[in-house]
Write a structure and sequence with these properties.
This protein is an alpha+beta fold and 68 residues long. The chain has one helix spanning 16-28; strands at 2-6, 42-45, 53-57. Helix 1 links the parallel strand 1 and strand 2.
């Protein structure tokens, strides 16, 4: 899973704190059954975009199991 976080302003934010909310939201929307299915997490801070945004890409695992 690759996440790009586009903050709404220049305030300091810890990117690692963002993962829990994103994973919980995707699980609630049944994108995957449980976040324990995720084997690789990558996060990048993008440019400032008001009011802020998160872009998520989920790719299939090597085993052929489709997560989204």
């Amino acid at each position: 899973m690759r996440v790009t976080a586009y903050p709404p302003d220049r305030r300091r934010r810890d990117l690692d704190n963002l993962f829990k909310g994103v994973l919980d939201a995707l699980e609630k929307e049944e994108i995957f059954l449980n976040d324990n299915q995720i084997d690789h997490l990558e996060i990048t801070r993008g440019e400032i975009i008001k009011p802020g945004s998160v872009h998520v890409i989920i790719k299939e695992t090597d085993s052929g199991e489709t997560l989204s």
